[in-house]
Structures are given as C-alpha cells and as structure tokens.
Design a protein that fits this description.
homodimer; alpha+beta; Arc Repressor Mutant, subunit A; Beta-Lactamase; Enolase-like, domain 1; 3 domains; five-stranded antiparallel β-sheet; 11 helices; 11 strands; DNA-binding
DNA sequence: ATTAGCACTCGACCTCTCTGAGTGCTAAAA
DNA sequence: TTTTAGCACTCAGAGAGGTCGAGTGCTAAT
C-alpha cells in the first residue's frame, strides 16, 4: 500500500483537510467540501482523493459517500501533518488549578489526574505509576500502644512507608516488642517477598520463644506489603464518556471496550512512550482485539526513584490527536512536577482498623 | 390509585406472574401467557388485568401490547408477593471463596466486594463504609530514620493509623523529634480538624523554637488525615454492565446514569436500610432524577466502632429483586464477618514516597 | 362468574420509491 | 499535460404504504 515516495503538497493538504474535517464532524468528507478550502475544483480533488485511496490513506464507507481517513491516513497525519496544538491560557490555568490539590497521597493524586484528563478530553482516561524494580523492606518499627495492641511500621526501599495496627488476644510487654523489632530488622530486611519462607518464620519463632504468633503476623504483613508494592494499579475515569461519541453508538462495542478498560491489569500492558513524551497508537496498531478500532494516546512522566508514570486516554480513531496529545502532555508534566518536584516530600499514606 | 383493600388471591397470582415473566423476558406479558400458568381462560385474565391496571399496578406500553408492572406493581410484589430467593450451594461457595481474599486493607476489600456483587448480579455495584462520628487523633509517634528524614505516625480514635515520610532540607536530631512528639501529643490530640488553627501552630512553633517548619508540616498532615478520615468514599464496579440490559439500549440514558454513578459523592446520599437488612428502592421512589426509572437494592453490614457499611447495586426497575437481595445480603454478611469478626485485627494500611 | 368469539388496534417488519450527496469518467479548456 | 465542466451513475437514508400477528376490549352465550 503506502509507498515511500513523498506525497505532493496538494495531496497532503487534501489529506489534512479530510482528517480535520472528519475529526470535527464525524461525517465522510466530500470533494466539494475539500475544494471549498482550496484553489482547485472539486473534480481535481476527486482525482487526488482517488489516488489517496489507492495509497491506502483514505477510504469510502460505501460508493458515493465522501472519504474518511484510514488508520494509515491518521498515522501519516499524526506524524507529518498535524500541527502542535497550543493550549490556551485558560486551559493551562485550569489544569494548574485542578492539579494543585492538597491531596498528597499518590493513589488519590493519580486518580485525580486521570479524572482531569478525562474531563478535558471527553474520553475515558487511565493513569498508573509503575516501579521497574522490586522493592525490599528497609526497616521495621514497632510502636507500643497498650498491653495488647501495637503498631507495626515498615519502610520500603522505594521510600514507601506502610503501617498496620495489630491487636493481640494476649498481653505483650514493651521489651518483647523491642526484641522482636531487633530480630526483624536483622533477618527480614533487604529480602524479596519469596525469601520469607515458612521455615524462616518458624525458626525465628523458635529462636525468639514466640508463642503468640507475633512473628507470623509480622511476617505476613511484610509479605503483603511487598506484594502490594509490586502490583501496580491502573485508575480509570470517565468510562461513560465513550458513549458521547457516535462511533460507540453500538452498545455492544461500547460494552466490550468498557469491560476491557475496567479490567485494570490489562491497561498495564498498553504501549508506553519510549523516547518521545507522548505515544499515539492508532486503531489496528493496537495489539488488543478490543482496541482494533480505537486509539490510545498516552503521556509519560518521571517520578524519580526510577519510577515511571503514565497517563492516557482511549477513544475512537477519529480523535483530535493534536489537542489530546497537548493536554495529556501538559498534565503529565504537571504531575511529574508535583510528585517529584516542588513539594517533594509530602506524599503520605494511610490506614486501618481494629 | 392503589387502594387499601386486599387484592384477591387470583389478582395476586396474576400480578406475580406478570412481574416474574417480565423480569425474565423484558417483553410485555399478554393474557394468554398468564393464562397458561393458571386454571382460567385468557379472557378472564384480561378482565383481571384491566382491573389491575385500574389500580395502578400494571400498565400497557401501548394499546394492544401486553402488560408490564408499574413501580407500584413492583413495590407490591416486593413487599408481599416475592418469595425469598435461596442461594444455591455453589453460589454461597463462590462468594465465600471470593471473599476469603488475603486482602486486609479496608478499601481494597470494599472495592473487591463491590466487584463481586457486580459480577454476580450483572448490575453495576457500589460499596462504601461510613463512620457516623468525626474522628480525632489519639497519638503521634515520630520515628527517626536519618539526619533529615523521619516517619510520622498518627493513630485516630477510630483505630485507623496513618503515616507519612517527611524529608527535610536541614538536619534534625533525635532529641528534637522527641520534644516535638511530646508537644504534639500534649496539644494536638483529641481535637477536631478545625481546631488546628494557624495561631495554634505559630504559638507552638514559637514555644518550641522551631525554625524548620516542623510544626507546620506535622500539623498539616494531622489536618489532612482528619479530613480524609471524615470523607467517605464510594467504590463503583461494573458500570459497563448497565449496557447489558435492554432498558439502557438508549445510549443517552445509560450515559446519564453512568455519569451519576461515577460521581462517588452522590452515592453516599442514597437511601440506606434502617431496620431491615436490605432496602429496595423502586424507580420513582428514588429522589434523584437520574434514578427515576432505575432501582437500587442495598444491604448494610456492621463493622463495629459505630461504623456502618453499605453494598448495593443499581439496575432497571425490571430487576430480579429476589435474587439480587439474597446475594447482596449474603455478601454483606460475609463482609461484616471478615471486617469485624473472624480475623478482626488484620486490617492495615499503606504508604508513600520521598 | 366465566368463557368463546370477534372486531379492532397498533407496533414491528417488509418493500418500494424517491431524493440528494457524492462519485468516476469523458471530453473540452488551459 | 493538467485542470475543469458536465453528465450519468450509485447508493444510503428517509418516507410511504402494506401486511402480519400478538394482544386487546366488548358482547353474548354458557
């Protein structure tokens, strides 16, 4: 199909007009409409469009309808024809305002950023933050609360801190905690989750003379924390926005895509930008069946600590790539700055329950 | 409309048949179909149905279509006619299996339970857990990590524990932390968030000779934690399930409802069961515009600590109330047992970041 | 009180036609 | 050689009309 020789300027102009008009109206674009924006007649445009169709850049939904871009057409548009959309002052202000939340918890912040992205683009958005290497526990602290309650605090190598309130049926003394803490810091740090074996636990138990199952509880929490640190979660917002777009008028199609989006683990596998800051994947360029006729635009941001975050949206191939890319990239920048930059040591954590 | 005199047994039987058939098929039910399940002719059924229509319990989508139940019809069915659906062994087993997750974090557990509810019912589900009284901070602990890093741990009156990693540009000493901790435990406990005023902060700062803004950081975290403890969050799962049901074939309708669901804060306002364990709200009984032609079934569970949790689903008025109520109620029971019962002191918490 | 019978209603579905936007081709103009 | 005007052609979509059948309400007989 697509061949390497450059398109004539005129063909480019036509392709571009078709793409942009189609993005706006969702209706096939006819030669007359295109001619209206050029200095040639519709007949000439027709000839050119026929050739663009031959190159696999345009197609007709049916004979005697206007043309719409193919995935290849969009690709060429995105790579060469699209001009960078510049955000207006109001837009950047809105983003700044929305992002300057006092929320300092990472997950909330991510979820919020996704929501913002979704609202600004009218497409479903997702966001996630992944650590490339596996974390280990750096230190344990046990805080004595009362005779049968203590708080366990663990700090991970990626500077995450988690805690747990432990209530025991029996009484414990401060010294016991003290001892336990020392042992844990000696034997249960700097190891990965799979190294905490039942045999290690029981030998520690014996060495410590622990009859309350303290070691088991603590080790369990350690494992859980490590596992959770490894699992990256994706947040999805505004899935319902899909239904705003005519290409998802077909309920079955919308349903399938929404199901896919809500899976969470699936989203982690989506392509991430490599060199560039924004990656655009158009229709059939997606590997997943569910995304065959949808596009994904995703921006990355750095978080420090070798962590990398992504924020993206999913929508029909007829997507305003220029605007979406600009917005995502701005949000991503803002997010990166908030997390690792300006107020760097504010992120916190939380939680739970007797 | 509906009047207080009891319906004849036969009318009840007819109403019930119509409701159950309609729940199953989503098609208006004709007199012949109903007659098939009774010992009278279709003509008799027709007469009876006409009367039921007069009572406002049934209606016709158009002349010469079968009847469908009105909201009042469903209400009467739910109150008097419906027999308790009993879960099969497989069903209870599946629920038990799914709920016996090792996840001990409250929010994850809630989200999971919602997902389960959604999967089992094919309707969107939501879950939340609300504390009726406002929490206060019970104690502070500051853990020294290194010269410019410490972990702050606060415990709330509702037994929640939260922590935060604080990194300072300047060096601190253990004794400073010690002092800070004492001061905080003396002046910043047992108060609500609005009592932590700037003037209190600055006076404490002066008293302590704090030049690093330590007090401000700590107080900020305290406020944030208290605010977060107050805010209850609702988790929604399976919103896309809406599209499975023919009543939401109309994309606009589905879109509006899904938007409503994704708001989160709105869901907190939904009716909760009072005496009973399951509350059913049918169509126009809902106050919200968005729910006028949808029904909400919600079950409550107790968590101890005066906390109350809810788990519910939203769907079309044509909903299998019996089955849904049974499932929700079972899940709620299971949830309540996990959270406050069997392994009571396992819930933990988490997190974050340099 | 129930039921068989019957005329009637009306949505669902099919077919047919008409319309107009848009095409490709051809032949003339530049 | 490229562009353009002109024209015949195509086809989705909207609308009109027709048929079908499920379901009704009413009446008269049981």
């Amino acid at each position: 199909m697509m061949d390497n020789t450059e398109l004539s300027e005129r063909k480019k102009k036509i392709l571009r007009t078709v793409v942009e008009d189609y993005i706006e109206t969702a209706e096939p674009v006819g030669s007359k409409t295109v001619a209206g924006e050029m200095e040639v007649s519709s007949a000439t445009v027709r000839n050119e469009m026929a050739e663009l169709e031959g190159l696999g850049l345009l197609e007709q939904p049916h004979t005697s309808a206007g043309r719409i871009p193919t995935a290849q057409g969009y690709r060429l548009y995105v790579n060469e024809l699209m001009n960078r959309h510049r955000l207006s002052l109001e837009e950047t202000e809105e983003i700044n305002r929305s992002m300057k939340s006092r929320l300092t918890q990472l997950d909330k912040l991510l979820a919020d950023a996704g929501q913002l992205a979704s609202r600004l683009t009218d497409y479903p958005a997702y966001s996630l933050c992944a650590a490339p290497e596996t974390a280990t526990i750096v230190r344990y602290d046990l805080i004595y609360v009362d005779a049968n309650t203590f708080i366990m605090v663990v700090m991970l190598s990626n500077s995450t801190v988690k805690n747990k309130l432990v209530t025991l049926p029996a009484k414990i003394e401060q010294e016991t905690l003290q001892k336990l803490s020392t042992v844990f810091n000696a034997s249960f740090t700097k190891i990965t989750e799979d190294k905490i074996t039942p045999s290690l636990i029981s030998s520690t138990e014996r060495a410590l003379g622990d009859k309350l199952g303290l070691v088991a509880v603590a080790a369990g929490f350690a494992i859980e924390t490590l596992m959770e640190a490894q699992r990256t979660q994706a947040y999805v917002s505004g899935a319902s926005h899909l239904l705003l777009h005519p290409e998802y008028r077909d309920v079955g199609k919308a349903q399938r895509l929404m199901d896919y989006l809500s899976d969470g683990t699936e989203l982690l596998k989506l392509p991430a930008p490599e060199g560039e800051s924004v990656k655009i994947t158009i229709g059939p360029e997606n590997l997943r069946e569910e995304l065959q006729d949808s596009s994904v635009v995703v921006a990355k941001y750095d978080v420090g600590d070798n962590m990398q975050g992504l924020i993206g949206v999913v929508g029909p191939t007829r997507m305003d790539y220029s605007k979406v890319a600009a917005k995502l990239s701005y949000i991503a920048g803002s997010l990166g700055r908030i997390i690792s930059g300006d107020n760097p040591r504010q992120l916190t954590d939380n939680n739970k329950e007797t």
